[in-house]
Specification:
Distance between the termini: 31 Å
Shape: globular
Number of helices: 4
Helix content: 40-55%
Strand order of the largest sheet: 2-1-3
Order of helices and strands: HEHEHEH
Strand content: 15-25%
Largest sheet: 3 strands, parallel
Length: 81
């Protein structure tokens, strides 16, 4: 099963949106070896900007953040579909 998951994500670009730097670092370090590229943002505004500029396959986001919440960011991203 592990190999199937690894194969599934090896060419994917992941965006992590998290305002707690320690947790952001842990998440990034945990997945960076399994994916093509990890992009990080410290709030929803940065996350939305990265989403607009890069080809993102998966977003991992905190919900409660300053400046723009993860829910608001998700709502804004859905407008691009």
């Amino acid at each position: 099963m592990y190999e199937k998951v690894k194969e599934l994500f090896k060419n994917k670009n992941i965006l992590i949106v998290e305002d707690e730097i320690g947790l952001l670092d842990i998440l990034e370090e945990s997945i960076e070896e399994y994916v093509n590229k990890v992009f990080v943002a410290k709030n929803g505004i940065e996350g939305l900007e990265i989403f607009q500029q890069k080809e993102i396959d998966l977003i991992i986001s905190d919900i409660h953040m300053a400046k723009m919440t993860g829910l608001r960011m998700s709502s804004e991203i859905r407008k691009f579909d």
